[in-house]
Amino acid sequence: MTDPTPTPGIHHVTCVAGDPQRNLDFWVETLGLRLVKRSINQDDPSAYHFFFADAEGTPGTSMTFFPWENLSQGKVGSGQVSRTAFRVPEGSLDYWEDRFDEFGVDYDDRIERFGETVLPFSDPDGLPVELVEVEIPEDDPTVPWTEFVPEEAAIRGFHSVTLWLADPTPTQDLLRTMGLEEVGTEQAQGDTPGDERTRFAASGPVGKYVDVLPTVEGGRQGHGTVHHVAFKTPTDEDQEAMRTAVRKAGLSPTQQIDRHWFRSVYFREFGGVLFELATSDPGYTSDEPLDELGERLVLPGEFEARREQIEAGLTDVTVPRAETADADADD
C-alpha cells in the first residue's frame, strides 16, 4: 500500500453548546469570528449548526457548534479533544486580555508551551479554548474578519488541538499514519506531575499541531465539550487513500457522507476521539455569495422542502452586527 497524502492539518472543530444566541454573541462579537454558515445539524434538523471562521471560511479556520439547548453540561476527560487553540498575531495578547476583562470572559494566566505564549480561556458554556501568539507570514492563507476585532489582533485560524487519552501510543501511531510528525515533548503544565505533552505537526500552515496528553480523567459529552475534530483531506482521492490507511490500521471509517460544503468520512480513533476527514470543496461559498455568508438559514439538499417545519422548531436568533453593538454602547 502506498502511503496516503499527509493531511495538511485541521479542517474544522465541532463542539456542543447550549443557548444558541449566547453562542452567537460570544463567537461573533467577543471573539470576532465571522458567522460563515447558519444551518442545521444534518443528523438532527431540530438543532442549529453554526460555523464561525475567518472572512472567507478558509479551511482550517472554522469552529462549528451544535447548540443542543436541552443537553446537560459536559465534562472534559479521556477520549476527548480537551482544548482547542487558535492562532493570533504576535503581541496581541494584551489586547485580548483587555477585551476579556471588558466582556467578562474567564481566562487564566499566560503560559509558555513549546516556546510559544498561550492564553487559556473558556467560552460561556465552559469550553476550554486557547489563543497562541504566532508570527503570521505575509502569504498566510487566512483572511482576518475585522468587524469587531482589528486585523492586528484578529484570530487567524486554528493552532492546535489537545487530545486527552488513556493510552496515547496507538493514537500517536495513527497520527503518523495520517502524515503528522512528532516534533517534541515537554512537561505538561497544570497537569499531573510526570505527564508529558507530545506534539505532532502536519504539513500545512494552519491548524498544523496535534498535542497528545495521557489522562484517565473521566469525561462526558455535553455543553462545553468538543464533538469531533476534522482533518483536511483536500480531494476525494486524498480522502479515500486516508480512509483505506485508517481501515488497515484497524479502525472502522464510514463511507463518504455528503455534508454539502465538504464530503466527510468519520471514525473513532483508538482512544475514543471522533475524527473526521473533510474535503476542501465545494466550500461555504458554494450556495451563498461571499459577502452574504451567514445571512440566512441555509437548508441543504432535501431539508429545503421542510423549511417551514424546521424554522418553526428553531429558536429565533440575531447575528451580532458592529453597528448595532456601537449603537447599544451609546445608549
Automatic annotation (TrEMBL):
Pfam families: Glyoxalase. Residues 9-134, 157-280 form the VOC domain. Residues 310-331 are annotated as: Disordered. InterPro entries: Extradiol_RC_dioxygenase (IPR052537), Glyas_Bleomycin-R_OHBP_Dase (IPR029068), Glyas_Fos-R_dOase_dom (IPR004360), VOC_core (IPR037523). SUPFAM superfamilies: Glyoxalase/Bleomycin resistance protein/Dihydroxybiphenyl dioxygenase. PROSITE patterns: VOC (PS51819). It comes from the Archaea. This is Glyoxalase family protein.
